[in-house]
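Morning. Coffee machine broken again, so started the prediction first thing and wrote up yesterday's gels while waiting. Chain of 94 residues, entered below exactly as on the submission form.
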Amino acid sequence: MPKPFTASSLASKVREVLDKEKRKQHLNTGIEKRRHPRAPISLPVVLKTTHGLIKGKTANISVGGLAIILLSEKPEIGDEFQIILKRLKTVKYQ
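Came back before lunch.
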């Protein structure tokens, strides 16, 4: 995926991975069981809570949402939080 990624390039990559996963699941079971198939994409994220920042990474992304693996503490029950996808560093190749 080109870095830094844009919303468009991320959406394109998610679609590409989802298509690949759909084909794989179809071959394995013949039936897609999820309403929105998940793409196994790992991106760094930060949860911004009223108590501070919590680091994590995505486990997978779908049209319906995303799964996050928290790398430190968990938010309190009832906490509202904002999910921030961290910007990846740009590396130029020559």
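Residues 58 and 68 are 4 Å apart (CA to CA). Going to sketch it on the whiteboard this afternoon.
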